[in-house]
C-alpha cells in the first residue's frame, strides 16, 4: 500500500496561476505542471532565504523531503526556461496554517484569526468571500 | 486601527510589497476615518525587523495589516497575536485607492 502523503504547510496562497514565456520562441508547447509545495520551496529557500532545515520545520516534513521537492521544482523551472514552456502551478498536498479567504469584489486575500462565523471582506465589506481552496479548486487535488 | 505598508508618506504612494522592511506604515482609524503616516524605524534592524514592527504596531492599537507580502517569520508572529492579515495582490494600487475602498464601506 502506498504511504499516504503528508500535507505540506504553505505560508500564503500564490497570487497567480502560472507563468508564460514571451518573445521569440518557436511554438506553444504543453505547460510544465508545478506542484504548490514545489513553488513554495523555491519561494522559501531562494526568496525568503531560509535554510532547508527551516523550511522542513515549517512545512512539517523531513529535510530530505524538502531537498527532493526543491530539486524537482528547480528542474521544472529549468525545463520551462530552456524549452520556453509556461509553468502552471497546480495540485500537490498542501494546507495553509491559517484559513485564507478571497474577496471576489476587491480581489484581496485575508485570514480570519478571530474565527468570525459571518465573514465579510475587511477591505470593501463585500459578502462575496470564498475560502481559498474553493476559489482555486486545484489546490487539494 | 488598520496598518497599510506604504512606499512613501503621501496618499499617492504605493503599497509596499514587504511588510517588515516597508518605508512607512499608514495607520487608518476605522472609527473616524482619519489617517497618519509613520516611518518604519524597524526596517533597518539587523534582525527581527518584522517582530519589532509588529510590536510597534500593536502599541498603536493595530488589529489588521494590509501588505503585498508576509514573510514566514512575521506571519507566525501575526498569527500568534491574532492580527488579521490582508494581502493585496494588485500592488499597482495606491494608498489612496485602499483608503477609498476602506471609506466606501
Ligand atoms: Zn473586498
List keywords for this structure.
heterodimer, A: 141 residues, alpha/beta, Arc Repressor Mutant, subunit A, 2 domains, three-stranded mixed sheet, three-stranded antiparallel sheet, 8 strands, disordered C terminus, B: 105 residues, Nucleotidyltransferase, domain 5, five-stranded mixed sheet, 3 helices, 28% helix, 22% strand, globular, binds zinc ion
Question: Can I get a quick summary?
Answer:
By secondary structure, chain A is α/β, with parallel strands linked by helices.
How would you describe this structure to a colleague?
The complex is a heterodimer of chains A (141) and B (105). Chain A has 141 residues and is α/β, with parallel strands linked by helices. Chain A has helices at 36-47, 52-59, 63-82, 132-135, and strands at 8-10, 18-19, 32-34, 87-89, 94-96, 100-103, 109-111, 129-131. Chain B is α/β, with parallel strands linked by helices and 105 residues long. Chain B has one domain (2-103): Dinitrogenase iron-molybdenum cofactor biosynthesis domain (Nucleotidyltransferase, domain 5). In chain B, 28% of the residues lie in helices and 22% in strands. Chain B contains three helices and five strands, in the order βββαβαβα. The longest helix of chain B has 11 residues, at 49-59. Chain B is globular, with a radius of gyration of 12 Å. Strand 7 of chain A pairs antiparallel with strand 5 of chain B. Zinc ion is lined by residues 103, 105-106, 108, 121, 123-124, 126 of chain A. Zinc ion (ZN) binds at residues 103, 105-106, 108, 121, 123-124, 126 of chain A.
> How many structural domains in the coordinates of chain A?
2
Shape of chain B: globular
The span between the termini of chain B is 15 Å
Alpha-beta content class of chain B: alpha/beta
**Largest interface, chains and sizes:** A-B, 22 and 23 residues
Low-confidence stretches of chain B: none
**What is the mean pLDDT of chain A?**
84
Secondary structure tally, helices of chain A? 4
CATH class of the largest domain in chain A: Mainly Alpha
Helical content class of chain A: 25-40%
> How many whole angstroms does the radius of gyration of chain B measure?
12 Å
Strand content of chain A: 15-25%
Q: Report strand order across the widest sheet of chain A.
A: 2-4-3
Strand order of the largest sheet of chain B: 3-2-1-4-5
